C-alpha cells in the first residue's frame, strides 16, 4: 500500500467564503514570562507591563497588563495554521485595531476570524485579496482585542493555470 502525504496548509482564495467564522483552537494562556520577554524584545518600557509595584498602584486595574501588541500578534498568529499557512503571499495591512478590555497573566486568549470580503487581485494574477476580521476573547468570553487584516493569498494552482 502506498502512503499518501497531506500537508497542513491555509486556504486558497477560492476556499475563503464571506460570512464564515473560523474558531482558532487551542487558545493561548498568557504568562508573566510572555509579557516580560515580548515587552523587552520590543523595547517597550511601559511600567504597566514591567513594574509590578507601579502597576499594582495604578488605577483602575491594580495589576500588570499583558502588552497589547503581544495580544494582537498572538491573535493573528493563532489564525495562521487554519487560514494562511503556505497560501499567504503578503500581509497588505491592518486596521480597526481596538483593545476594549485588558488581558492579564493567566488569562487564556482565544481567537475567531470572520471573512468580511474577498476579490481577485487586479494587479497580481493567480492571487486574491481577502479582508479578515479577528476577535480575541479571554476565558470568560470578554472581547480583549479586535482587528481587521487584509491579506494577499494564492489562488488554487489549477485555478491560476
UniProtKB/TrEMBL annotation:
InterPro entries: HotDog_dom_sf, MaoC-like_dom, MCH/BMMD. Residues 20-132 form the MaoC-like domain. Pfam families: MaoC_dehydratas. It comes from the Bacteria. Belongs to the enoyl-CoA hydratase/isomerase family. This is MaoC family dehydratase.
